[in-house]
User: Fold these one by one.
Assistant:
Number 1:
Amino acid sequence: MNINHIDGKNKGNVKLYSLSTCGWCKKTKALLKNIGVAYDFIDVDLLSGNEKDKIYAELEKWNPIGSFPTIVINNDVCIAGFNEDKIIKELGT
């Protein structure tokens, strides 16, 4: 499975579920880069077969409607959609 890591400040376990073609996902990645947070991301649309099924099942535990982007922080906080204020509140410096 292709999980990408972006280096930055350690704010805990930050995982972004995204689509490679999603404008809001790109805005989320840019925001995380601008605030300098380390995170992992998975472009779900680039997966196939069992990998894609596994990630969708994982995503739906946090965001039952399965929308993108979805950020999960420390397996505790979920931010569904691009919500700049909430992302900065949870991860900002």
Number 2:
Amino acid sequence: MTRSATGETERLARELERVVWRWQQLPLDRALEASPGVSAVVQHLADEVARHEGLPVQPVPDLGPAVLMDQLTVMVHDHQTAGLSASALADELTDVRRGLP
């Protein structure tokens, strides 16, 4: 892994940590309000990875706001494992965090 790739991977890990921390601070009503947008990002990542791996696209189950950050974390891991852009994903997570109420 190149130095810049390592830096982008570290930036992605930091941004995921920041999103999860921010999510944990949300009251339930705000988490419920924000869930559809975050779920859409999780589904987008799942779709991207499936297409990249040549797998069929399948819906990510809605398990509620208590599990949503676990789903996001898994999708970020899968995204990295598939070799997709850490930089673009870090930017997307920044947008998610900034969009939380």
Number 3:
Amino acid sequence: MEVSRAKALREAWQSAGDSPCPHTGLDAESTESGYFTGRYVCKTCGHHVQVSSRSSRDGPEAQMKRTWSRYALYTSMGLLTAAVPILTVWYKRKRRAEE
């Protein structure tokens, strides 16, 4: 939703009594040329709505668990990536010895 359209919605909502809005539908705010402003706007009333990231909603325990699971995954992937060339050379030498 463009900035000008959000402003028009805000003005219309305020002129209608400025009652509370549940902010059920959100849209990304953009400039007239289509660049994302980094803010989200309610489709009903036009007010800016704070959207929190998933990591801020989770507790520190969930963040720590995610960190360790990523560490384990990336470490195992790194070890596998390092082992593939070694295993390939070993397998080729073994096949040549059998011939």
